[in-house]
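TEACHING EXERCISE
Course module: macromolecular assemblies
Task: Read the component lines below, then compare them to the predicted structure of the full complex.
Student: A.B.
Group: 4
Components provided:
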Amino acid sequence: MPWIQRTVVLSPQPRGFQLVTREIVSALPEISELSVGLLHLFLQHTSAALTINENADPDVPLDLESSFSAIAPEDFPHRHTCEGPDDMPAHVKASLLGNSLSIPIHNGNLCLGTWQGIYLCEHRNQGGQRQIVATIQGE
Amino acid sequence: MPWIQRTVVLSPQPRGFQLVTREIVSALPEISELSVGLLHLFLQHTSAALTINENADPDVPLDLESSFSAIAPEDFPHRHTCEGPDDMPAHVKASLLGNSLSIPIHNGNLCLGTWQGIYLCEHRNQGGQRQIVATIQGE
Amino acid sequence: MPWIQRTVVLSPQPRGFQLVTREIVSALPEISELSVGLLHLFLQHTSAALTINENADPDVPLDLESSFSAIAPEDFPHRHTCEGPDDMPAHVKASLLGNSLSIPIHNGNLCLGTWQGIYLCEHRNQGGQRQIVATIQGE
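Instructor-supplied answer key:
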């Protein structure tokens, strides 16, 4: 099986932790053809992030947003403020959370646990489209 | 060399940062057969995490536990509190630390630095067993 | 195409977030020969880290340094203090940021976004050389 690599574009999302498992999987139908492998997702931005977290209770993404905004607060004495008060905290959160994920593939499905979902963490107030380079390898 | 993929079950651990390098390596004897490759570990949970840190001084995991519990404190005004005060902070720590690791393999061994060990970060007071999907590729 | 694996040694850096994209890429000329693949970088240390962040404004790495030093402060009541007040915060930051990166390769280049650069996060006041195991796979 050759390598598969494709850019997945996510539509603009409001600030916060947004579940995107379904969008990602539906953009990558080749996952279903692999018995074993790895999916690598690489977000090409520095003011948003990718993470895996609880996919069921809608309070969880709200608590993640308020928690990360407390850890990297807007009232911190930043130098890099030209793009607004949400910009430099977005860069801090991007490094706290990370911009890539690797997820195993087994029998045509992502090996996510029962309660695991893929989140786009949009840290800007007006984030725009977000590009992910998806790379799949397997057999 | 084909892909190797296997679930590794870690026995219940008390809350804190627990060194599991030996358990992981002994569950994956195929590492010793590879001259070059990558081991991917994917924890299928959202209230625990995997990280690499200092493997020698037993004070380090205690300081990691107290530091991460200060960064994501239990007295934060969370909405998602139905599973107890340790639950939502556990989700925050899971995203701060991440649920997966990729470690290079060289000449039959993991390429860990002298002071590096693999930690299971158990963030729940009563965590139970934890499942890791291990995926190995190499030659 | 066989696997490529090599140790890249970074010269000692002052404490802070240091852009090393150029050093990494120039040490790995094989990237230019691949049409598709993945580069994995694994830092073999527990008091430094690797991250991807904004590569343009020199204020950003200064703000990242001050932000992470506020999140993992030196005046925290740590037990592991024998190597100085910067040591245990360095371990906390190492786990917050992570010690490895996976970056997709496309048409002979790393698929970094326009504003993305690779940072070595040196958390020690006197860090010394830092070793990275680079593993490349592709075709």
